[in-house]
Amino acid sequence: MNFTLLQASAEYKVVIQNLMQFYIYDFSEFINYDVGDNGQFAPYPHLDAYWENVNNKFPYVIKRDDKHVGFVLVKSIETKNKKYFSIAEFFVLKKYRRLGVGKSIAMNVFNLHKGNWEVYQKDSNEPAQIFWRKVIEEYTNGRYKERKEDGKTIQDFDNLDR
Fold first, then answer.
1. Over the chain, what is the mean pLDDT?
2. Which of 26, 56, 75, 146 sits a CA distance of 20 to 30 A from 84?
3. Whose CA is closest to 117, among 99, 100, 132, 102?
4. Could you tell me the pTM of the whole model?
5. Which DSSP category does 55 fall into?
6. What residues contact 74, with CB distance under 8 A and at least 6 apart?
7. Cβ contacts of residue 89 below 8 Å, gap of 6+?
């Protein structure tokens, strides 16, 4: 199966907004989050910023042929002490999981953004921890660090030599 990662122009914002409902539904298993009175989850906060702050936010859609199968939101974070990339959100429709698409797309995203990385998961989301450990272990040949902080498991690594 051929999957494509496309940088999401503004025309894809509504696609990501719609897919976000499925993402939040999946994620609601790990957080205390319910639908509103209209039967939908609240809109993802600050999604518009991915098209307004183009210097530090990078939205992507995942496609197979002409079908949308997921999205990735990447951000560049700069603090007083460090600068790094982070995957804010990563989603693949269940139908396409366990086919290697997630791993392939994640590695593609890492290759698009060279530098320091921090990838985190909520401590309650064990499936995500297993996925990201496996992907990052393979991508870095085991050269990453993991820590727990504020209810999150965080893997950090750099890909400057790749």
1. 92
2. 26
3. 132
4. 0.92
5. T
6. 57, 58, 59, 60, 85, 86, 87, 88, 109, 113
7. 20, 23, 44, 71, 72, 73
Task: Judge whether residue 1 has pLDDT over 70.
Answer: no
Does residue 97 contact residue 107 with C-beta atoms inside 8 Å?
no
pLDDT tens track for 107-148? 999 999 999 999 999 999 999 999 999 999 999 999 999 999
In angstroms, the Cα distances linking 79 to 2, 52, 76, 103, 144 are 37, 20, 10, 28, 20
Residue with tokens 């698009």: 112
Cβ atoms of residues 59 and 16 within 8 Å: yes
Report the C-alpha gap between 158 and 94 in whole angstroms.
29
Q: What does the block give as tokens for 102?
A: 């997630």
Are the C-beta atoms of 96 and 64 separated by less than 8 Å? yes
Q: Which residues pair with 120 in a beta bridge?
A: 154
